[in-house]
Design goal:
Elements (H helix, E strand, L loop, with lengths): L9 E5 L2 H11 L3 E8 L4 E8 L2 E8 L18 E5 L2 H10 L8 E2 L6 E6 L5 E6 L1
Parallel strand pairs: 1-4, 5-8
Antiparallel strand pairs: 2-3, 3-4, 6-7, 7-8
Keywords: Metal-binding
GO molecular function, one term: metal ion binding
InterPro entries: Fosfomycin_Res_Enzymes, Glyas_Bleomycin-R_OHBP_Dase, Glyas_Fos-R_dOase_dom, VOC_core, YwkD-like_dom
Length: 129
Amino acid sequence: MLELLGIHHIAIICSDYEKSKYYYTEILGFKIISEEFRAERNSYKLDLALGEAYIIELFSFPTPPARVDSPEACGLRHLAFAVRDILLTIGHFESLGLAIEALRVDPLTGKRYTFTHDPDGLPIEFYEQ
């Protein structure tokens, strides 16, 4: 039987590297582990951590195709992050003038959650623990 130990990282290709770098580091609070410009690909690779855990590889490429915008399309549906206080999370986005959806309640768990989007429209969920 295959023994998976956990998720190593999530790779995201962005359309505007500086905008996405700002969003993931300054808005969401990820810490930069390393940043590399790969001249042969005209591409940046940014490794990001949440706390001490390596979580996201953020890539730029010169002309990536647009993301399919249907939330029910095959592929990655959204990223979900656990938060302690969903109302503080909503307040954080509102204080920055950024769009965030209204509070929802998971009918199976009774937990509160909400969604926003990164600069390329990737849905980001915040789920209260």
